[in-house]
TrEMBL record:
Protein's name in the database: Putative 4-oxalocrotonate tautomerase
Domain called 4-oxalocrotonate tautomerase-like: residue spans: 2-61, 73-123
GO molecular function annotations of the record: isomerase activity
Top-level taxon in the UniProt lineage: Bacteria
Length: 139
């Protein structure tokens, strides 16, 4: 289930930086969540500088870049993993885009297995055995 959306002004970065970010963030996300990388999906939402404001100033005027990311995780993930996602993805944004760490924001959105679909079926059904094993590890 590891899905992430990253909100950026991609015109501020090279195609190589964006490509490197997508690959590196995928690796880190899979590693932190102990998930097969084949399940990881990362989407970049690209915004023109005129459509972003940071601190009340429009980016096209200020030049301030402030990446934001949303990590979607299945409920039941330990808080330590959630914190690790926030820290490690921030690290990747700094590494790949030379972003100012103090301006990066992120959130972990928890989704119940009954409300997440995998191949058209609720994750609660599609991954019942896997979720039970994970829950036993966290006890």
């Amino acid at each position: 289930m590891p899905i992430m959306q990253v909100h950026l002004q991609t015109s501020a970065y090279s195609q190589e930086q964006v490509h490197h970010f997508l690959e590196r963030a995928s690796q880190v996300y899979a590693e932190v969540l102990e998930s097969p990388i084949e399940r990881v999906r990362i989407f970049i939402h690209d915004y023109p500088a005129e459509f972003i404001a940071v601190g009340g100033k429009v980016t096209s005027d200020s030049g301030v870049l402030a990446p934001f990311f949303e990590a979607f995780l299945m409920e039941g993930r330990p808080l330590s993993q959630q914190h690790a996602v926030l820290e490690r993805i921030t690290d990747v944004l700094v590494e790949c885009f030379e972003a100012d760490r103090s301006l990066i924001r992120g959130v972990c959105n928890m989704v119940s297995p009954e409300r997440w679909g995998i191949a058209g079926k609720p994750a609660a059904a599609a991954r019942a055995a896997e979720l039970a094993a994970r829950e036993n590890l966290n006890r």
